Amino acid sequence: MIYIDYNATTPLDTRVRDSMRPWSSDKFGNASSRDHAFGWDAEEAVEDARFHVGNLINAKTSEIIFTSCATESINLVLKGLVHAKDANGRTIITSVPEHEAVLGACRQIEARMGVKVQYLPVDRYGNIDLADWAHNIIKGETFLVSLILANNEIGTINPIREVARIAHDAGTLFFTDATQAIGKISVDVRADGIDLMAFSAHKIYGPKGVGALFIRSGEPKIEIEPLIAGGGQERGLRGGTLNVPGIVGFGEACRIAQMEMEEETERVRKLRDKLERTLFAELPDIWINGQKSNRLPNTSNIGFSGVDARTLIRDMHDIAVSTRSACSSSSTGPSHVLKALGLTDEQAYSCIRFSLGRFTTEEEIDYAVKKVISSVRRLRSHSMISITNERIH
Ligand SMILES: *Cc1c(COP(=O)(O)O)cnc(C)c1O
Fold first, then answer.
1. What is the share, in percent, of the chain residues with pLDDT greater than 90?
2. Whose alpha carbon is nearest atom 2 of ligand 1?
3. Exposed, middle or buried, 37 (CB in 10 Å: 0-12/13-18/19+)?
4. Which atom of ligand 1 is nearest to the CA of 68?
5. Could you give the residue numbers annotated as active site?
6. pTM of the shown model
7. Which domains does the chain have, with CATH numbers?
């Protein structure tokens, strides 16, 4: 089985696994235990991890809150801000092709909390229109601006620095879901003017079940009401005993990402470009979704005209790719991201996301590409036969 679905999740790096091992065996202390060395050791390990997580995004250690996943971080920001401030009658500005975590939280907020959410569209390449954002972000009315940093389905990278500036000019906070960008492109919360940012360990070769929320310190002060109240962990913003092994693994994953990102990105980009080059040389009537240049280096979302993507995936049974985000695969209907680009339902059902990563090899890409080419050719010739048959009958 060849795994080309790194945007859904990544395997645990063995170095990360090794770093976690002691913390799930003899070093089992509760990081909040203040009275003995089991607790002190665990707390030190957590703070060390917090340093590495913060360091990767140029944040201070004190600005990182650990959660269970990016989805939780996103919910904590959106709902926690609404709860903490009088947001009634005000507006959250976000984009149509956000991740389900943002869209789901926004739908709840709209339904129950008297806050309006405005979903701004993107063009056929997935790009936002800055003038549109400047026009819709309104001083006193806009409560929060939330824009995904890099899209998980098509890889388009948003101009968040510009949007953050527009938000700040209107006296509004800027939040970004950076889950897919972290470890793939460099993210600097200070240079980019990010106030709040969510991301996750399992997308960067860390364990599942750990996420982080960056909350900028300083003025204007950001007030968030916790969703999980309890023992005062994480500066009172997220109660519950800390997942020490998971957090240690997250820290190690961030440390490795910082060391290796540049080299890894170049290697992966070359493989991704080879995949696209070969497919385009061999197959007519295919297209790339998203912007070709300003795109995550590992992501390639390709449409195969006249081919049903689910049939294609079943046909290439030893290649793990996906038709859409794993996080929305329980919902039926075409991908909301592809629909946002203006694709028809039929076109959206003809698309496959290839997402490469740290352990993808050139041999794997060569094999996968061959398989895609032969499957697409076969399926297309079958559909030609059935069209011909229909004409005869
Ligand atoms: C994977 C992903 C999430 C959800 O992350 P979890 O840690 O699984 O909750 C959110 N946003 C984006 C862009 C993602 O790719």
1. 90
2. 179
3. exposed
4. 7
5. 327
6. 0.95
7. 13-256 (3.40.640.10), 261-381 (3.90.1150.10)
